[in-house]
Design a protein that fits this description.
Helix content is 56%, strand content 11%. The protein is mostly helical and 280 residues long. It has four domains: 69 residues, no CATH class; 57 residues; 75 residues, no CATH class; 52 residues. The longest helix has 28 residues.
Length: 280
């Protein structure tokens, strides 16, 4: 299946004319492979599914017992709380299930490319994100059954009407069950008054965040705890990993020894092991 998958991607790139336009016979793409269940079986099996299964097994019994004792004032309020927990659990299970489906063949997979990182002789950090999105949309058009073009919006943050358009787009995406969006500066590498800007910020929807933070994360006491997170270390980590990733690509493109490329790769792996706020 892996060989067939790669051949489909290669064939789509050929039909789009990208090999000729970039004068290359290889490309490095940043993509999302779907569904989750095709690449993260252990995460689903060991983390998400057990949480939902345990709650679904325990809560009905607790709700049943509290229903019998609801004439007691304390039990009545506790019963309402447990019913809300039961509803939150169902939302949690529904949230992660929509990212999982059975994969029996290539027809069950989708690949969403969103960066064309490098090709022969060039790392494409000088191109803005519109170029990346439009170039990759051309590849996706060549094989829409396998490749999924990433929708995007260009928002002028100094324009209030544009801001409203971006907010509405996000709300509509998440209302349909979408994960949310990733906000990026127009330039691939952007610098501001305080130095290098974050390359990307994930803005996820409520139900997707339920998967990450747990079924009851929207309760006031949980939200207040999440809002007090320390983001400094995570932001610093993201910038350092971004810089090392670009450096690895530059060394590879300029045909430096493989050990020089691996220096950057191992640097990223080392940064991944650094402790950060567990609430992130």
């Amino acid at each position: 299946m892996e060989c067939q998958f790669l051949e489909r991607v290669r064939s789509a790139i050929e039909r789009s004319g990208l090999w000729e336009s970039l004068k290359t016979d290889w490309v490095c793409l940043d993509c999302e492979l779907m569904p989750w269940s095709a690449k993260a079986q252990e995460l689903l099996r060991q983390q998400y599914a057990p949480t939902g299964a345990a709650a679904r097994a325990a809560l009905p019994a607790a709700i049943g017992a509290l229903s019998q004792a609801q004439l007691i004032p304390e039990a009545a309020s506790l019963l309402e709380s447990y019913k809300q927990r039961g509803e939150a659990t169902e939302r949690y299970v529904d949230a992660y299930r929509q990212y999982c489906w059975t994969v029996n063949s290539l027809a069950d997979l989708k690949l969403a490319p969103f960066h064309l990182l490098a090709s022969e002789g060039a790392v494409h950090t000088s191109k803005d994100h519109i170029w990346h999105m439009e170039t990759l949309a051309g590849i996706c058009k060549a094989d829409p059954e396998l490749l999924l073009a990433t929708p995007f919006q260009v928002i002028d943050l100094t324009n209030t009407d544009d801001q409203a358009k971006g907010i509405q787009w996000w709300e509509e995406l998440t209302a349909r069950g979408g994960e949310g969006m990733v906000v990026k500066p127009l330039e691939f590498v952007a610098k501001g008054g305080k130095g290098l800007a974050q390359p990307a910020v994930k803005v996820r929807g409520r139900e997707y965040l339920r998967i990450i933070y747990g079924p009851e994360y929207i309760l006031p006491q949980n939200l207040s705890r999440l809002k007090s997170r320390g983001l400094g270390a995570k932001r610093s980590l993201a910038l350092r990993e971004f810089a090392l990733g670009i450096e690895a690509l530059e060394r590879f493109v300029h045909e430096e020894p493989l050990r020089r490329v691996h220096e950057c790769v191992f640097g990223v792996l080392a940064l991944e092991s650094e402790p950060v706020d567990p609430r992130l």
